[in-house]
Amino acid sequence: MAREALAEDAPRGDVTAQAFVPADLWTCTAVIAREAGIMAGGVMFAAVAAAAAEHGGTGECRVEQTVPEAAPFSAGDTLLTVEGPAHTVLLAERTALNLLQRMCAIAALTRRYMEAVAGCASAATGAPVRITDTRKTTPGLRALERYAVRCGGGANHRDGLSDAVMLKDNHVALLGEGAQLTAALRAGRARLGHTTHVEVEVDRLEQIEAVAAAGVDTIMLDNFTPAELVTGIGVIAGRALVEASGGVSLETVRALAEAGVDVISVGALTHSVRNLDLGLDTVPADHGGG
User: According to the model, what pLDDT value does residue 74 have?
Assistant: First the structure.
């Protein structure tokens, strides 16, 4: 992934550095936080630096992470230090920062959601309400973004369409309603076998009983108000895990959690996050250092 990202930014190398920066110039740099956040992605930053050494750089860099993964940081903190050939550092800089800024931002936003639901528990099990991501990730970056969610204290939903069974609204619409829907879900469940977790999304209270009667494992209540969630949880009555989703924000998540759901999935963790402001400050050292 690091190599592909660098190739996108510098398919023929860094022409600016090649023209103006001496090939033997050595530099010491530091990634400085310009706002608070949660650390996520130091290993990826180092991977980009290593890839840059092979992709037009003039030697390897030494990257030292000074803030551990999943740890909070404040504005002004040094997150990583980078020492090596200036050509390599300049080649890696933007790509490495782009990834680090996004991952730290996702981790920080996830942490805010976790803090917002602190103390809330499932009405059925008493377990803490879980915050998860969704499939609304950046194509090609899903693994990194999901890792950042975990750094923020959240959990991951299914990896993708091939990894778990989840019937969304369009699937349900194709299967019918009432007894027809129950029968279709039971038949599909039988084909899958008892070890496969099955989740079904509903967007109306009237759909819940037909889905719960099919013996599915999780029922997602999509765009339900807190009052509707309480009613829905009562209908499900412990027959399945209850997930809330749809338009969740920091302003609404606490009320959804207090309704007593088991899981709240939040697309905003990855699709609406703003990259944190991090900078790489470079101080040239002597020629041929290292």
Answer: 98
**Residue in 136, 186, 204, 254 annotated catalytic:** 136
Q: Does residue 94 carry a catalytic annotation?
A: yes
Domain 2-113+274-287: assigned CATH number: 3.90.1170.20
As to burial, measured by CB atoms within 10 angstroms (0-12 exposed, 13-18 middle, 19+ buried), residue 243 is buried
Ranges of the chain whose pLDDT falls below 70: 57, 283-290
Phi, psi dihedral angles at 243 (to 5 degrees): -115, 135
Residue type, 221: L
133 assigned to active site:
no
* Overall pTM > 0.85: yes
Q: 201 catalytic, yes or no?
A: yes
What confidence tens digit (pLDDT) does each residue in 176-215 have?
999 999 999 999 999 997 888 999 999 999 999 999 999 9
| CA neighbor of 37 nearest in space, from 80, 74, 79, 78 | 74
In 3D space, the residue among 61, 48, 131, 129 whose CA is nearest the CA of residue 94 turns out to be 48
Q: Give the start-to-end residue ranges of the domains of the chain.
A: 2-113+274-287, 118-271
- In the set 168, 177, 274, 281, the catalytic residue is 168
**Burial of 175 per CB tally in 10 Å (0-12, 13-18, 19+):** middle
* Class of the CATH-defined domain 118-271: alpha beta
Residue 126 phi/psi, 5-degree rounding, is 80, 0
- Name the active-site residue from 69, 222, 228, 277: 222
pLDDT single digits (tens) 209-240:
999 999 999 999 999 999 999 999 999 999 99
* Catalytic-role residue among 14, 77, 133, 201: 201
Q: What's the CA gap between 7 and 112, in Å, rounded?
A: 34
Instruction: Name the catalytic one among 35, 83, 94, 228.
Output: 94
